[in-house]
Amino acid sequence: MKKEDTVKLISSDGFEFIVDKEAAMVSQTIRNMLTSPGSFAERQHGEVTFPEISTTILEKICQYFYWHLEFASGKDREFPIEPELTLELMMAANYLHT
Amino acid sequence: MSNQKKKHFQIEAFKHKVVMDPKYPDKTWKILEDAIHEIYNHNASGLSFEELYRNAYNMVLHKFGERLYSGLVATMTVHLKDIAQSIEAAQGGSFLEELNRKWNDHNKALQMIRDILMYMDRTYVPSARKTPVHELGLNLWRENVIYSSQIRTRLLNTLLELIHSERTGEVIDRGIMRNITKMLMDLGPSVYEHEFEKHFTNVSAEFYQVESQRFIECCDCGDYLKKAERRLNEEMDRVSHYLDPETEKKINKVVEEQMIENHMLRLIHMENSGLVNMLCDDKYEDLGRMYTLFRRVTDGLLKIREVMTSHIRESGKQLVTDPERLKDPVEFVQRLLDEKDKYDKIINLPFNNDKSFQNALNSSFEYFINLNPRSPEFISLFVDDKLRKGLKGVNEDDVEVTLDKVMMLFRYLQEKDVFEKYYKQHLAKRLLSGKTVSDDAERSLIVKLKTECGYQFTSKLEGMFTDMKTSQDTMQGFYASHPDLGDGPTLTVQVLTTGSWPTQSSITCNLPAEISALCEKFRSYYLGTHTGRRLSWQTNMGFADLKATFGKGQKHELNVSTYQMCVLMLFNNADKLSYKEIEQATEIPAPDLKRCLQSLALVKGRNVLRKEPMSKDVVEDDAFFVNDKFSSKLYKVKIGTVVAQKESEPEKQETRQRVEEDRKPQIEAAIVRIMKSRKQLDHNNLIAEVTKQLQSRFLANPTEVKKRIESLIERDFLERDDNDRKLYRYLA
User: Fold this and answer.
1) Which of B39, B146, B542, B629 sits most deeply, having the most CB atoms within 10 A of its CB?
2) Inter-chain touch B112–A42, beta carbons under 8 Å
3) Which of B371-385, B412-426, B642-656 is least confident?
4) Superkingdom of this entry's organism (chain B) (predicted)?
5) Helix B133-141, helix B65-88: angle, nearest 10
6) How many A×B Cβ pairs under 8 Å?
7) What is the pLDDT of chain B when averaged over all its residues?
8) pLDDT tens-digit profile of B575-591?
9) Contact status, residue B306 vs residue B264, Cβ threshold 8 Å
């Protein structure tokens, strides 16, 4: 993974997840962040901090990104979601427009 | 959570009160407001997108969308007003540049703002039915900057000034123009139109009105058209570079109207350089330009066509009524063909093969060719000349081309039956004197006539060819069965079927003894194989080759007509003969005899006889001698060929009369045919039908048709209705 093609997503606890830009941009919000004109800090440093998203949730979301890239077109596999994460995951998804 | 008392399952409302900090919305909004300020001040680097996005998100989530939105509107408006002021302050040339720069800035800022406020755009905006952020940004720009009183008119004027200077030859910055017009287009569907396009077309109209007036005073037609074309191209170029493509047709219309439509007639009729001059001088380039330009405006081509038509008719009319031209029929027809060629080329190249022009040309030719009643005769004479000698040595393809051109003229004739009569006469002369250049060419023309007019037109003509062929065979048979005649004079007989050949009066003359004996032998031979037929000798149509020895020993072979032969043979037995003696001996009718003697005695280089006295006219008391001093450079001397000539007045009258006579039965046949199928028909319709049926041969005269109807009524073919005098009924 080349450095230019990746972006660092940081959870509220400070955990850093390094993912492909392509995967991250499954989230419309992150896509806007990275493609908006103007020199916002995130784009300059290549990292985004989410103070309101916990590590567990952020981890699940990164998994979803990759699942989406691979399986979203067909209906082969369902994305596995543990029930206790549902509410928080939904809110994060709303926030991230995913 | 599970209630195990009964089957009641109740989920209680969430009663936990979320206490919100009352200052929360204001604080959050302040953060965003500051961010917007920074963005507009080009200070946005270093801001955290996520933080701003989160704040906006939370505001909307906690139902403060309204606050957020109205705050946005207010802030943007403030900034835009500032921007407007700075643009207004710009001096002269930098006005547009400043506007352009600020516009680009605004767009960038707008996008950033929209990205941050994406959540609001997605959720609050549609549900509260507000204008989305991007559109809002454009609207605010429009209201505060473009519609600002100072900027609005200044912008328009600047644009128009620049265009004007470009039109007068200066170079302007097209890039900026493009950006500005694009901005106007982006701001809304009618902004471009109202703020710019409308005024642009008006100002352009004025500009071109002035310019066209100036040009037309000082330029000739060709130059003017070149200028107009150049301006049109310029405008198209302008549109493609920095205007909305939709403007193209509007500005084209303006230029076309001002430069072309308003001056159409003046251009066409311009002295020394207008349409007629272009036509006469074959100015293809100018004509082509006029065609393409005038085609853009209503009735442009119509006007050209009208003037061209009347010009062709006029000049054609002069051609056919000019007495000088009528002296030489072959020249006359050649001129017609040249005119047709000229206009065909004009219509083909500059006028783009336009069918309506071709039709106009055809109708004009039809009009003036028929103005001269001798046209059919002259066309036949032209063909005769070509088939006699004109097409000698010409290759097959060129022959076809010439014949096709003749057919073209033939089609224009209204009196095709007159042509037929003359053609028969001329063909007969050609065949009988053996003077046709190419048998193939003759036949080719017959085929073309047949294709054009049908079998009946050409059946007699084909009969003539058949007779010639049959006669050849007959002659072979004759000599084969009379081997003893090998030493005497050689006889060649053409047996003509009466119906096919032009009618001639058959007056025979006295042939020399040797010849008449031979003729009798032939007559019995022929009637032996063809019983029931009658032969009569046509002595006025034949010719003979005589071997003559003159006083000083000079030998010549003389090619003479049959009449001339009879006269000359008499001098084998006498040195001097008077006119009266010759007349008695030969029994040739007087006018023919006189002509014959004139051609033998009075034509220099062919005067095998001498006349006393040497006067031009032949009278009763003249005496004739063999001219012993006769000399000629050639061994073979041709005297008096029977050449087709333009008819004299009396001959013309006679032919015309015969044609009229021939038409009567044709009209009657048409009437009977029509009445038989319709059973009854009124007078006007009958005349119309008859005319239509006969129009491929000639133009029926209504008076004549009426006479024929009367005649048919008398003969009980038709009857008049008792109640309606104008209705006719067919009697079976």
Assistant:
1) B39
2) no
3) B642-656
4) Eukaryota
5) 30
6) 59
7) 87
8) 888 888 888 888 888 88
9) no
With an 8 Å Cβ cutoff, are B108 and A42 in contact? no
Of B46, B108, B115, the CB nearest to A41: B46
Q: CB-CB: which of A28, A40, A52 is closest to B47?
A: A40
Cβ(B191)–Cβ(B142) below 8 Å: yes
Residue from B49, B61, B134 to probe the interface with A (highest A Cβ count within 10 Å) = B49
> Is A86 an interface residue toward B (CB < 8 Å)?
no
Cβ(B311)–Cβ(B302) under 8 Å? Answer: no
pLDDT at B632 over 90: no
Would you call B57 and A97 a contact, using CB atoms and an 8 Å cutoff?
no
What is d(CA B68, CA B118) in angstroms, rounded to the nearest whole number? Answer: 12
Could you give the dihedral angle defined by the CA atoms of residues B283, B286, B290 and B292, in that order, rounded to the nearest 10 degrees? Answer: 110
Pick the CATH number of A3-92 from 3.30.710.10, 3.40.50.410, 3.50.50.60, 3.30.70.2750: 3.30.710.10
b (16+ CB within 10 A) / e for B17-30 = eeeeeeeebeebbe
Which residue from A minimizes the CA distance to B45? A39
CB atoms within 10 A of CB B53: 26
Chain A contacts in chain B segment 103-162 (CB below 8 A): 108-109, 111-112, 115-116, 118-119, 122
Q: Does A98 touch chain B (CB under 8 A)?
A: no
Identify each DSSP E strand in chain A by its residue range.
6-10, 16-20, 47-49
Chain B hits for A43, CB-CB cut-off 8 Å, are: 49
| Alpha-carbon gap, residue B407 to B375, rounded angstroms | 13
Tens digit of pLDDT for each residue in B691-715? 998 888 888 888 999 999 999 999 9
The ranges assigned to domains in chain A are: 3-92
> What would the 3-class secondary structure string for B29-82 be?
HHHHHHHHHHHHCCCCCCCCHHHHHHHHHHHHHCCCHHHHHHHHHHHHHHHHHH
Give the DSSP H/E element, type plus range, for residue B315.
Answer: helix B300-321
B 43-62 residues inside an 8 A Cβ radius of A = 44-50, 53-54, 57
Cα–Cα distance, B331 to B702 (Å, whole number): 35
